[in-house]
Give the backbone structure.
Amino acid sequence: MDTPKWTNGGILMEEKMLLAQILDKSKQAKKQQKVECTDFLDMYQVSLAKKIFNQYQIQNVLLYGGYEEAERKIAVFYPENDDKKSELLKIVRIQLGNGEQGKYTHRNYLGGIIKIGIKREKVGDILVTDDGADIIVKAETAEILSKELGMLTRFQNSKISIEEIENIREPEIKIEEIDIIVPSLRLDSVVSDLAKTSRSKAIDILSQERVFINGQSETKPSKNIKIGDIITIRGKGRFIIKEMKGNTRSGRNILRIEKYV
């Protein structure tokens, strides 16, 4: 089968490694008739994985992150009629002690995980609430993560438990409506306004593969966005193109945006 051509100038090392991992897991699942899965993939890798599945016509595979809106997901390869995804993931739940509610952010929890030596690809989404966080991990990682987190000073007064993935506390989605005015519906123009940066910087963000439309990586500045598109800019947030409100006297486009906050 031909080498996939989804990057300019050949396949990057990260992509080669992901391709090799996916082909190996798919082969093992079929050969040994058991479920196989990758580590957690970020949004870019998820987008890339979908292209690999199509390119190599890989079936009996799904992307799973524990809940519908998960950004980080594992690729699960399973024998025919043997989809047991719910058994693969667990939640490590941190419940903060009295007086610590609202004290920590996503960065604080992730920093603690990295500090104890667990690699980022071993951890899925970290869902932060005022009283703690639900950390999604593969079942094999849950026990060691729960023990090691309990040894950190920042969590010494916290209750740490392992929960079934079905008991996940999905974050409450808060949306703020904003209007933006852009000269065109080109992606670089929209990203420039959403990220509050220059057009040239927006093009850099696109080239760094930090922009996703409806979950798919997009690097083409001239691509036109449309109503209903969900645009995610890594490091900047997630936005829904809700409505075209009209034009200014100078012909610029007025867009109503729903911003996740």
User: Anything to note?
Assistant: Confidence is low (pLDDT under 50) at residues 1-10. The domain at 175-260 is CATH 3.10.290.10 (Structural Genomics Hypothetical 15.5 Kd Protein In mrcA-pckA Intergenic Region; Chain A). The chain has three domains: 13-82, 88-167, 175-260.
